[in-house]
Every structure is written in structure tokens, then in C-alpha cells.
């Protein structure tokens, strides 16, 4: 089963993403969070943190997600 959790809370911290990456124990699950400046894409055991508009890191995160069999339509997080 695939799924995601999305929030726009500015209170999200990178340390929280590390704990979440550890908790996501099944490939196919991920979470994405964003604020006005940054995006966090959290996968099992790996987190991508990048500035809005950073297309290279966004592409890397999406590629990693594909390697976990996450369906393409789920990569609709904020650019």
C-alpha cells in the first residue's frame, strides 16, 4: 500500500524528519512537508531537504521515490 502525509506547518524541523524516516519502515510510504522556503521529502531511511525551485534536488527525490515503487501521481508535492 502506498501513502503520504502532507502538512504545511512552519514548525516542522529537520530533526523531526530524521525520526519519521526511521519510522517509515515499509518502502512505498513517504511524507512531504513544506513551508514558504523549503520542502522536505521523507522516505524510509532518507530525507531530502531543499529550497523551493531547486529542481535538481526535487528530481533526485522523485527518482529515489520511484526506486521505492511509489506511483508517479504521488509526486505532486509543492515545487
Structure description:
- The chain is of the alpha+beta class.
- The chain is built from two helices and four strands.
- 20% of the residues are buried.
- The N terminus is likely disordered.
Give a short summary of the structure.
The protein has helices at 14-23, 55-67, and strands at 6-7, 31-34, 38-43, 46-51. The chain is α+β, with helices and mostly antiparallel strands. Strands 1-2-3-4 form a four-stranded mixed β-sheet, with helices on both faces.
List the helices and strands and how they pair.
Blueprint lengths: L5 E2 L6 H10 L7 E4 L3 E6 L2 E6 L3 H13 L12
Parallel strand pairs: 1-2
Antiparallel strand pairs: 2-3, 3-4
**What about the largest sheet?**
4 strands, mixed
Number of domains: 1
Strand fraction equals 15-25%
Number of strands: 4
Helix content: 25-40%
Which residues form runs of ≥5 with pLDDT under 50?
1-12
Main β-sheet, spatial strand arrangement: 1-2-3-4
Structural class: alpha+beta
Rg, nearest Å: 11 Å
**SS element count, helices:** 2
Query: What's the order of the H and E elements?
Result: EHEEEH
Straight-line distance between termini: 25 Å
What would you call the shape? Answer: globular
Mean pLDDT: 77
List the keywords:
four-stranded mixed sheet; 79 residues; globular; disordered N terminus; single chain; 2 helices
Amino acid at each position: 500500500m502506498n501513502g503520504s502525509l502532507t502538512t504545511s506547518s512552519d514548525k516542522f524541523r529537520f530533526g523531526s524528519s530524521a525520526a519519521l524516516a526511521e519510522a517509515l519502515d515499509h518502502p512505498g510510504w513517504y511524507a512531504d512537508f513544506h513551508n514558504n522556503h523549503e520542502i522536505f521529502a521523507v522516505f524510509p531511511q532518507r530525507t531530502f531537504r531543499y529550497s523551493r525551485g531547486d529542481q535538481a534536488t526535487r528530481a533526485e527525490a522523485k527518482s529515489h521515490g520511484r526506486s521505492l515503487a511509489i506511483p508517479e501521481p504521488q509526486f505532486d508535492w509543492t515545487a
